[in-house]
Amino acid sequence: MEEKQFLEILVKRYVANELSEKELEAFFHLLAQGKLDSLLNRYLDKESEMILKDNQIEFPASHLLSKSSRGLSIAASVILILGMVFFLAKPGIVNFLKKGVVSVKTSKGEKKEIKLPDGSTVWLNESSRIEYPVKFAEDIRKVVLVDGEAYFDIKRDTTKPFNVEASGTNTKVLGTAFNIRSYHFLESVQVTVTRGKVQVEEAANWSRKPQRKILLPNEQVNFDTKTKSIKKMAVNSANAVAWKEGKLLFDNESFANVTAILENKFGVKIAFADESMKSYHMSAEFIATDSLAHILNLLSLANNLDYHLENKQITLLKKKKNIANPMPM
């Protein structure tokens, strides 16, 4: 069943008050995404009849308009279930197969804006995945940044804290705005605050008291996922969310992180001729649509480097110094 057919039946059954609890969850999420607006005004048109005919289920027209038609209800339920399996299983579409949990994923070059059940907004960067409940619990609002990067603008609720789990960290707020970068290919989780106050702590550790930092605007925490060290520093928070404006910005970033980000973005492998180069730090700004060659050329020029490219394998090396010939005697 095509996506359009599934959406039409979903709207028709909502208006007829025939949706199950699970179907209602799907309906309200799709409604928040703006996918149902045009259908709500024409839920019982001829296209609805064609959906049933295309699926070899025929009913008299009078029955199609009757809420009391049991046959229609059963048939529509079967079609809707099949449609949900087909539609929701598509890559990048919200996944309701896990009970009570919404999972949203982005591919390379894709960004998404998400409305959470409490009215908060999340912007999901490329190559990222987030999970959140269809309905928050009574005492806490908890989401999981499974992988990637997201900017959170959280609706304030002093009775129900907001908590983001990401790679061994918990970020807790009441109502504020902050960015979390937690890609699996990076060795650290980075939390940056743009508004309000945020508490970042290490996930529960039974061997010792979890480390904890309080952040205010223009402050950032970096949590090393290997050493478990957590460091706080002052930053320009606008740089951390430049990706929302289509920029690729590195702010005093290690070469190890820079190359990991470029590897993921362009699908290449980058190696260092000298391993000590990984600890170099650099700052640079590009447009997200800049080519890899353009980025490498500018990085090399700014850091006195050379690079060699062969079969999607890039090697960075220090530029050799030119030794001037001695003056003749």
Automatic annotation (TrEMBL):
GO molecular function, one term: sigma factor antagonist activity
Transmembrane helix listed as a keyword: yes
Organism domain of life: Bacteria
Organism for this UniProt entry: Dyadobacter koreensis
Alphabetized UniProt keyword annotations: Membrane, Transmembrane, Transmembrane helix
One Pfam family from the record: FecR
This protein's name: FecR family protein
Transmembrane segments: 71-89
Domain Protein FecR C-terminal: 247-316
FecR protein domain residues: 104-199
